[in-house]
Sequence to fold (103 residues):
Amino acid sequence: MTDQTVENWQTLSAETRAQLLLRGIPFPGETPHETRCRLKNDLQLYDDTDLTALLDKSADTLARLRVKGTGPVPIRIAREIFYDRTDVARWIKQHRDGAEATA
Fold:
């Protein structure tokens, strides 16, 4: 990896970089953990760890909700599962204690 490669990547628009990431092309020289953290930040996403804390649910419960299709809509990027923050907020509002779910 050269400084020029990094510089070229940084000059790309955020949308272009996001499209490259969605196709599995990472930022030059970063570790998988760094890619994951950047994806979460750049694309405004939550992961299972974020949701377990936010919803006070176990990882097993989140997995069951995902399999049943009754939880927030998952997004798979580079073999990882994420959730759009807007979708999570909408899901939380629809599933408040005592509130009826709206379609």
